[in-house]
Amino acid sequence: MSAAALHLLQQRLHESNYLLLDGALATALEARGFDLADPLWSARVLLEAPQAIGQLHLDYLQAGADIITTSSYQASFEGFARRGLDRQQAAGLMQLSVDLALQARQRFMAEQPETVTAPLVAASVGPYGAMLADGSEYRGDYGLSVAQLMDFHRPRLAVLAASGADLLACETIPCPQEAEALARLLQQEFPATPAWISFSCRDAQHVWQGERLADCMAMLAAVPQVVALGVNCSDPRWVAALLQQAASVTDKPLLAYPNSGEQWDAERKCWHGQASPARFAAQARRWHQAGARLIGGCCRTGPAYIAALRAALDGAA
C-alpha cells in the first residue's frame, strides 16, 4: 500500500452517501456445502477449494458490494503451523486470500464495463482469539500485554499490508488492548497502511471484554491510519445504540456489519432464531440514520442480504 492509498476510503465516502460492504464468508461457504468445523475455519477453504472463495467474492460484487473482504480472518502463522505449513507457505496462503478478491474484482469490472469506480478490497485481520479457535474473540481477557499482541499481529500485517489490498479490515476486536496494539503497529510500523477497526459487542454499550465501546473508540479517534471505526459480529438489535455512542467520541466514518440476528448455541453448535434479508435491510436503515457510512453483514448473511441492503439503502437515499 502507498501513502496515496491512505485517503482512498475517504474519497469514496465523499462521493457516496454510504458504501456497501459484503456479508459473511465462512457461514456463506457453509451454506454452499463446505464443512468448516475446523480451527482454520474459512481459511481451510483456501487450502482445499480457493475457487469457491473467488466465486463468493464475485457473487457479493454482483449483489452490489462496494467493498469485499478477504478470507484471511482466521489465517495466521500459528494456525497454519499447526496444520504443518511453514512460514513461507502460510504467507503464500495469506497472499492468495487477497489475490482471489483482486481477481474477482477484475472479473466483475470486465463483466460490468459501465462501472466506473472499482470496488475496494479489504484484507481481513482477525483478532488473536480467532487463532485460538476457542471462542476467545467473544470474551477477550487474553492475558497478553499490548506488546505481546503487537508481536502476534506484526508478521501478518506485514504480509497483508504489502499484498495489494486497498486497506485492512481489523475486525471482531473484543478488547481495547488489542485495538491499541493494532493502532500502535499502524502508526509505528505501517504508517502508509489504512485500516478500519471494528469491535464485537456483547450488548448495546460494551465490547465483549466489558469496556464501554465509546471509551475504546475514543482511544483511536486521533490515529490517522484508522480510517473508519465500527461494530461487527454483534446482534443487530444493539447496533443503532452502539453507533450513537461511537458518534459521540469520533468523527471518523462509522461501520456497521452485524450478524443476521440469529443466535449461536455454542453447546449444541447450531443457530437459533429467525432472520431474513428483508428484516435485516429494514434494520440497516436505522443504522444509516444513526451515522453508519459503511454497512454490510457478518455471520449468517449472504449475497441475498447484500442485495436487500442495496435496495433498501438506495430507496432511503
TrEMBL record:
InterPro entries: BHMT-like, HCY_dom, HCY_dom_sf, Hcy_S-methyltransferase. Residues 7-313 form the Hcy-binding domain. PROSITE patterns: HCY. Gene3D superfamilies: Homocysteine-binding-like domain (3.20.20.330). GO terms for biological process: methionine biosynthetic process; methylation; S-methylmethionine cycle. Signal peptide: none annotated. Zn(2+) binds at residues 233, 298-299. One of its GO terms (molecular function) is zinc ion binding. It holds the Pfam family S-methyl_trans. Keywords: Metal-binding, Methyltransferase, Transferase, Zinc. Its cofactor is Zn(2+). PANTHER family: HOMOCYSTEINE S-METHYLTRANSFERASE-LIKE ISOFORM 1 (PTHR46015:SF1), ZGC:172121 (PTHR46015). This is S-methylmethionine:homocysteine methyltransferase. It comes from Aquitalea magnusonii.
